[in-house]
């Protein structure tokens, strides 16, 4: 088994998370993290029996924060906290995202500001390393005072309650604990609160979505380049001098990607005097639109990487013995970033669908004709008309999901929690936008590949031809109507696999 990756509360990045996911490497606690956690717990043990009331240590929660709890009831209080807050509803969360929640919770506790025992963190580590994912539900969090409901469901598994996913099947959490040789965890003072206060539900969704969107950006640039070649558009709008005159980083990166992919094209010089003056915006403004999405991703990534290396529970237990109540559990920074990502990702689908529409129009430039609807015998055949319908439907749905959740707030806990972020809603709807966008790009990809076949034997840029060949390894040219649903699913798998970008980069160099 590989050596564990040791967490210490800092230094966790999206790329580290990606590597951990791909390698299935175990995780552990760094020695300095163990020391901090142990010292923090000692402070809680000292304070809980004293005369002074400390929120979450020897008091109730939320609207009951001023109610002192008897020493003999403190453990029961923590268990009741988890039971009462496990009110999640709706669909079950992907176990891969639940694994991220476990990872991020461990990293937050590793900062040693939460007052929990090392044994509690060990339970989280054992679950993560065994691939055990407690069943967590999508709805029920307001995104402030922490992701209370989903994190309560995450915690149930440690207590031997509820269900967990293991090897693709659900099992009672009690059986899962037994398989690890662990008794159900008994929570001590402050520990239940430390587990359910926090932003790990929102943050896990943000990490998962960002990794998918980052990969999608390269696919979007590849699609745009392939569609540009197939419609015999102009490469002039990708001239580096244009983008140096408006030097947004994402814009310059996108233009550079497309230039790399177009290198070696025979198609571009073949129609240099064709009479076209300017392409529609969906081709001409690819750097500006895709680039703006890139910059939105960059901003969100910075926010998320701060968040996943932060203590987001309450109260915080500082090394000098101070126990300080605050609001680091409030999800507003993530809610804004998640909403911004949904808007940006929806635009990636929107411009893709417009390029797809251009492909269906056909043209008569040069010797090689691009037929309407990308099929020679239309009338009898509908061609690629209906895949465009599907893309249009997804783009329209994205517009609904792109409405920001973070502008809403509903008071809870009898007014104690009177402003909330709704970041959990922003998180779950972002995944819908990402999935829709992946599908729209898959439809453009299979359509652009079909169009390029009509332009052959003239060759597109080296990176584009490599990607086209990869598409043809999985999808045959469509001579006539067929079950395009299956083609869309195949293209979607290809978009998600990373193979498309891998072959394109081998031919044209590393893309941004």
**Proportion of residues in β-strands:** 5-15%
Secondary structure: number of strands: 9
Low-confidence stretches: none
Strand order of the largest sheet: 4-6-7
Radius of gyration over alpha carbons?
A: 26 Å
Share of helical residues: 55-70%
Instruction: Give me the CATH fold name of the largest domain.
Output: Fumarase C, Chain A, domain 2
How far is the first residue's CA from the last residue's CA? 33 Å
Mean pLDDT: 95
Structural class: mainly alpha
Biggest beta sheet attributes: 3 strands, antiparallel
* C-alpha geometry: elongated
Under CATH, the homologous superfamily of the largest domain reads: Fumarase/aspartase (Central domain)
List the helices and strands and how they pair.
Blueprint: E1 5-7, H1 14-23, E2 27-29, H2 31-47, H3 74-85, E3 89-92, H4 95-109, H5 118-130, E4 133-134, E5 137-139, H6 148-158, E6 163-166, E7 169-172, H7 173-179, H8 191-196, H9 200-230, H10 240-244, H11 249-262, H12 267-270, H13 281-284, H14 286-307, E8 316-317, E9 323-324, H15 332-361, H16 385-401, H17 423-455, H18 462-474, H19 484-497, H20 499-508
Parallel strand pairs: 1-2
Antiparallel strand pairs: 3-5, 4-6, 6-7, 8-9
Helix pairs in contact: 3-6, 4-5, 4-9, 9-11, 9-14, 9-15, 9-17, 11-14, 14-15, 15-16, 15-17, 16-17, 17-19, 18-20
